[in-house]
Amino acid sequence: MTPYIVTLTTGIIGRHRFYRLKAVDRDPFVELVKESIESTDVEEMTPQTLGRIIGEFGTEDMLTCEEELKDHIGFTGDGQEFLRGVVSYFLALAIFARLDASKSSPNIPPYQRFGEVIRL
Q1: Phi and psi based region of residue 115 (left: phi greater than 0; alpha: psi -120 to 50; beta: remaining)
Q2: Is residue 101 exposed (0-12), middle (13-18) or buried (19+ Cβ within 10 Å)?
Q3: pLDDT-derived band of residue 80, with 50, 70 and 90 as boundaries?
Q4: I need a labelling partner for 61 at 20 to 30 A (CA). Which of 26, 45, 90, 95 fits?
């Protein structure tokens, strides 16, 4: 996970207080976060910022597969809305990975608040 994505997800987790959610399963958590940030943080981003975010995710950060992506992202003909949906979904997956207590990865640093690691 690049420093840009770490910084971005740290800000989103803190602003929305996603760290306060009780331990939940991945899919409901990701859907809740996706919907929340899609209508706030991601809505305000320029197409250039959205493109940069997509470009910052590498193969080691891909926490989903093509089938899941198709299930969570719809395309109605509006390219910007599609891009916002993809970015929201990727960021929601990254946020879950940073807060997920059951997994640890050298590529995905845990969320920290005031120097303390916080997990779901």
Answers
A1: left
A2: exposed
A3: confident
A4: 45
Phi and psi at 113, nearest 5°, equal: -130, 120
Please say whether the beta carbons of 104 and 74 come within 8 A. Answer: no
Q: Which domain holds residue 43?
A: 3-117
The answer for residues whose C-beta is within 8 angstroms of residue 59's C-beta and 6 or more apart is none
How many domains are contained in the chain? 1
CA dihedral sign of residues 10, 13, 16, 19 = negative
- H or E segment at 112? strand 112-113
Whole-structure pTM value: 0.86
What pLDDT shows up at residue 62? 61
DSSP code at position 116: E
CB 30 within 8 A of CB 77: no
